[in-house]
Write a structure and sequence with these properties.
The strands form two sheets. Strands 3-4-5 form a three-stranded parallel beta sheet, sandwiched between helices. It has a two-stranded parallel ribbon with strand order 1-2. It is built from eleven helices and five strands. It is mainly alpha-helical. 46% of the residues lie in helices and 6% in strands. The protein folds into two domains: 72 residues, no CATH class; 170 residues, Rossmann fold (3-Layer(aba) Sandwich), CATH 3.40.50.11810.
């Protein structure tokens, strides 16, 4: 169900105002809770923001009362707390690896895929995370079930650079360049992520990352996990929005025999 009443989760302004962040996140939680529905987040940052806000509201009753009073001015009741879910959780825990495997009509055999989780999926760790923060394997198991190979690489759980983009664009793209160079040099054919922030940094900023960082590396295709699963299920590239990807995804399509 589309959630039109929702606004920004507040994470981008958390460093400027913790109270404003908590209000924005609490507002989304309250609206979803009033519907009696769980929240599905596509973005790692949104997932972290809403889970942390829910944790604060649960463990700090005095702060919860303050948020309830503020939301009351909008006519919003903060009563029921919805369950916050992430795309990877739904695919792995709810749908299940075996059902995904059975739905596939195309194999990833011959493709070495780097699973990039993004730092907000594994940190902070003082409340439940969608994946094991020490050793996440859910994306790898999905990739392998679809016939692909995968593997570890240095700084696998590090930041993509997106969160410092507004403070220092140069630093942000250098972080992305370092990660892209490492993954490319380790022989991966494709990077798969689930987070829009990570996707933007790794997919659309490869050329500027080379230019600013001075690093030389082979451009590498980047896809969302959902796009990769869709390809294996027989969806056409245009149905998956692959024409919007700025990295060389045609290389993957060619290897998979997709026209």
């Amino acid at each position: 169900m589309e959630f039109r009443e929702a606004q920004c989760c507040g994470l981008p302004i958390k460093q400027a105002s913790v109270e404003a962040w908590l209000y924005m996140a609490s507002r989304i939680l309250a609206l979803a809770g009033s519907r009696g529905l769980p929240l599905l987040t596509l973005c790692n940052g949104c997932n972290t923001s809403l889970r942390e806000a829910a944790h604060v509201l649960k463990t700090r009753p005095e702060i919860k009362e303050k948020m309830k009073e503020a939301l009351r001015e909008e006519g919003i009741a903060l009563e029921r707390m919805p369950k916050v879910r992430h795309t990877i959780e739904v695919l792995y825990d709810d749908v299940g690896v075996e059902r995904i495997k059975q739905a596939a009509t195309r194999s990833l055999k011959g493709l070495k895929v780097a699973a990039y989780y993004g730092c907000h999926l594994v940190r902070p760790r003082h409340y439940p995370r969608p994946v094991d923060p020490e050793n996440p394997v859910k994306m790898e198991e999905i990739i392998e079930a679809l016939g692909g190979s995968t593997g570890d690489y240095p700084d696998k759980l590090g930041c993509c650079g997106a969160m410092v983009l507004s403070f220092s664009a140069e630093t942000a793209v250098k972080i992305a360049a370092s990660k892209l160079k490492t993954i490319s040099e380790m022989g991966f054919d494709l990077i798969v992520t689930s987070c829009p922030y990570c996707f933007e940094m790794l997919d659309s900023k490869q050329e500027v990352a080379k230019s600013i960082s001075g690093e030389e590396f082979e451009s590498i295709p980047v896809m969302y996990l959902t796009q990769l699963i869709g390809l294996c299920m027989g969806f056409k590239p245009e149905e998956l929005g692959l024409y919007l990807n700025m990295s060389p995804v045609d290389e993957v399509l060619e290897k998979l025999g997709v026209s």
